[in-house]
Specification:
Shape: globular
Helix content: 25-40%
Largest sheet: 7 strands, mixed
Strand content: 15-25%
Distance between the termini: 17 Å
Length: 307
């Protein structure tokens, strides 16, 4: 996407690429694809960039020749702080930037771990978990540590009734603690949870599908879709409201692995717990997906031709 943005904007928007370490790694991966696969990615990226030019006038319009649009890839480490953007487009002279989160055929918003050494409240929400939470999860994770210590090759499938013995107690403790944190910190936890999972910076999410690309605009702070020197965007992107409270946390129907977290303003998020490795280890992973968002989430579908 970065290369296609550069090719499209270098002449009309005075663009340059910051060749950082993330760029070199990504280019290595891209070069490993077949020519057909590369062309598919290019067509998808090109369609997305054309749309972004329509909604972001600053991409193709500058103040003067010194007003350079810098394109760069973001380090994966930044995502740990809640910034989910993969590509940044920056005009330093205007103190302006927009970001893009690029996904290939999946809608997961985050993959986060739980263990007795991870304070998810502090890390995700800025509010530490209670002593009671750790006292509840410690026996389960200590059991897993003991199993691994005896034999590092032991597989999860060897744990009898694993869902009842491991998953459900951990999910119950997580559910109870998240509700407690929200009750004790009104108007903070719900908003911070969405910002940690969805993103704490405004951004466009580009999802590549089969023969189409979907562009979503997460305009949480109103920094997207701005006019420039009297030039207005071709489409209006409304602001997206953050939630202020949790409504409920329930198990997905007929599931022992997935919690559905419902918040006000139309947000709903699923948390599916699973073991990240086939071998037993004292940590578990969440596959977190956005089930629903406010009706004001701007979404545009662009159909692309086969290569």
């Amino acid at each position: 996407m970065l290369i296609e943005a550069y090719e499209r904007l270098k002449d009309i928007g005075n663009a340059s690429i910051n060749v950082n370490e993330s760029y070199k790694v990504a280019k290595g991966f891209f070069d490993s694809f077949t020519e057909i696969e590369q062309n598919t990615f290019k067509i998808t990226a090109s369609a997305s960039i054309n749309f972004l030019i329509d909604v972001e006038p600053r991409l193709s319009n500058n103040k003067n020749d010194l007003d350079i649009l810098t394109l760069e890839l973001v380090s994966d480490k930044v995502g740990q702080t809640g910034d989910v953007r993969d590509v940044l487009m920056i005009r330093s002279l205007q103190d302006w930037e927009i970001g893009i989160s690029a996904k290939n055929n999946h809608r997961a918003v985050k993959h986060s771990r739980l263990s007795n050494g991870i304070d998810f409240g502090d890390k995700w929400l800025g509010v530490p978990c209670s002593k009671d939470y750790f006292e509840e999860i410690n026996p389960i994770f200590n059991m897993l540590s003991d199993i691994k210590a005896k034999d590092k090759q032991t597989k999860w499938s060897s744990i009898e009734n694993m869902h009842d013995v491991v998953y459900i107690p951990i999910l119950n403790a997580f559910r109870k603690e998240l509700l407690r944190l929200d009750k004790e910190n009104p108007n903070i936890v719900a908003e911070n949870l969405v910002q940690y999972l969805v993103g704490n910076q405004d951004f466009y999410k580009v999802i590549k599908g089969k023969n189409k690309v979907e562009v979503q605009a997460y305009n949480l702070h109103g920094t997207l879709n701005q006019s420039f020197n009297g030039i207005k965007p071709k489409f209006k992107i409304p602001p997206l409201k953050l939630p202020t409270r949790l409504i409920e946390i329930v198990y997905q129907q007929n599931s022992k692995t997935t919690l559905l977290v419902s918040l006000n303003e139309g947000w709903q998020i699923s948390f599916r717990i699973h073991n990240a490795s086939s071998r037993v280890e004292p940590s578990l992973k969440f596959d977190i997906n956005l089930i629903s968002a406010p009706y004001t989430l701007f979404t545009n579908h662009i159909f692309v031709a086969n290569t």
